[in-house]
Design a protein that fits this description.
The chain is mainly alpha-helical. It has four helices and two strands, in the order ααββαα. It has a two-stranded antiparallel ribbon.
């Protein structure tokens, strides 16, 4: 294996690890405003990293997750809201972008 190939592999692995960490951060932040009654919705949140496409996916896996997220007519208490994942992603995008850039920059040294 050439040195360039090894360096690219290390960079790719570092990028995937950074994406996973960024996804976990987004999930944790989103959970702060996700609707909560019994905690099932929040407990179903997960981060999946698509290694081939180098992207992180944050999702919730309950039968009602999509409705809770999309239906802005539903009322939530205690600072909880519809579109919690979408809003949190927008609110935290600069922070997540800076985190990813820093991690990838560190890995490329």
């Amino acid at each position: 294996m050439r040195t360039d190939d090894a360096a690219l592999r290390r960079l790719h692995e570092a990028t995937l690890a950074a994406l996973s960490d960024a996804g976990e951060f987004l999930l944790e932040e989103a959970n702060r405003t996700a609707p909560i009654e019994e905690g099932t919705l929040i407990g179903s949140g997960m981060v999946t990293v698509d290694r081939a496409r180098a992207k992180a996916i944050v999702s919730y896996d309950t039968p009602y997750a999509v409705r809770q997220h999309e239906d802005t007519r539903l009322r939530h208490t205690n600072g909880r809201r519809a579109k919690w994942l979408e809003h949190t992603g927008r609110e935290q995008s600069a922070r997540i972008g800076a985190f990813l850039a820093d991690r990838i920059r560190q890995a490329s040294r």
